[in-house]
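queue> holo job accepted (zinc ion)
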Amino acid sequence: MDANMRALGASSKLVLKGEHQSIHQTASNVVEMGFDSSSDNSDAFNLNAAAHPINSAVEIPTIHVSDDAGSQDGSDEDGDEWAIESIFEDSFPEMEDNHLYDGTPNTCTYEEAMQYRQELRDVGPEVFIQRTIDAKTITAKKLLTAFGMKPPEYLEMCDDDAYYSLLSLAISRELSKRVKLPAYNSVDDAVELIKKSSNIIVLTGAGISTSLGIPDFRSAGTGLYSKLAHLDLNDPQEVFDISKFRENPKIFYSVARDLITDEPRTTPTHAFIALLQQKGKLLTNYSQNIDNIEATAGILPEKLVQCHGSFATASCIECRYQVPGTTIYPSIRAEKIPQCPRCIERLQTSKTSHPMKRKRSSNGQKKKKKRFDGVSDSDSEGTYDIPEPGVMKPDITFFGEPLPDRFSDRLTNHDKDKVDLVIVIGTSLKVAPVSEVVPFLPPHIPQMYISREPVSHVNFDVDMLGDCDVVVAELCERAGWELKHEMIPKDQKIEVETVEGFRSRHRFTVVK
Ligand SMILES: [Zn+2]
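queue> job finished
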């Protein structure tokens, strides 16, 4: 084994962070794996080429991973995670498994890929490397494709050992994935699982609300962000940035009306989750959505975790006074900034006793000091302003705000040992904290996926592709359950086709 291969062996030993991994860890697993942090006690992983002497030709951006997610100090955890994802995706172009199958030159076929993945599991990374790269039975460049990684163009003219560090990453990443359970493949397998399970976790994302015209709110380039061009922001995420909100709440309130529904509507997918609850099968619905449609659909508060908060309530950013979310809907619809009624009341009281009170600086700096604590601030540039009440903000989690505690509490202390089936609907599972749920749960629990397109970073047992409203209608039909919803056309006919080359991947289309 030469030095390069030793390096490869060493870093591929750095493996699974499975159950002991904090679910609060901001880093998405894909980034975290494959980098030997043991030699470097700092909490920032360095993906720079310099840290990988094995291949100085690879230019990989440095990624700093903060591990203080979930802390209460208002660190920009979501912002970091966002950056990590996009850097990862730019640097390591992934191949979806269906590209493996189509016979692109110098890529493994789907069958070869499955064999290599199995062999890696069976013999471990060291022996696997001996049998493949050391024995020269396959190039590192081609072997990359077996793990869903596309050889990057910038390495095209390099020797094969230029691919070793990427291969090491690919292997580590593969080993950290849950292994698909071979027993479940068909749509009928999925139906049987749903029928026999009694503690189902349903993970939902923006895809389940888009049929009501609610934009997908975190996807850059699509959905809500594309509507923000006229706002002249450096980054569309600034709409959901807590310090920007404190600086200028107008930005948020100019788009917020698009995030609320005009009338209490639900989708067939929401009705499906409610039906699971009605049949005593719903353990928890973890939703990434902030539209609060789950509540409209009748999901009980104790069975619902809105991972990014929701419009269900709103709070004053100064005094934390909380009101039902609908209280501020008229302001949201009028694109006006709602003000805190309690602040207004206190102001009116204090006006009569202290007519010339100094306004606290509102320059967006973090100041924990209460505005109306009776102490006049000396940092407001000496001007005397008319005091203003605090601004009301919907209790959705902004970038820079901690995630709701209920998420990790419920998952670790309640759900983990009870769950018997996981159904992921309408999310690509790339945004924490929901992305951390699947790797956190026991791997023998069946997991199924319902979305328009498959994902390659998670191995589900059954993939059901298509419009989620259509997929759930077909599942209920086959289960003999009546899914009542006005958006399901009478006599709807759905065709299910198994995707060529995949036993467990099925595409649902409406034919009538
Ligand atoms: Zn207030």
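queue> The mean pLDDT is 76.
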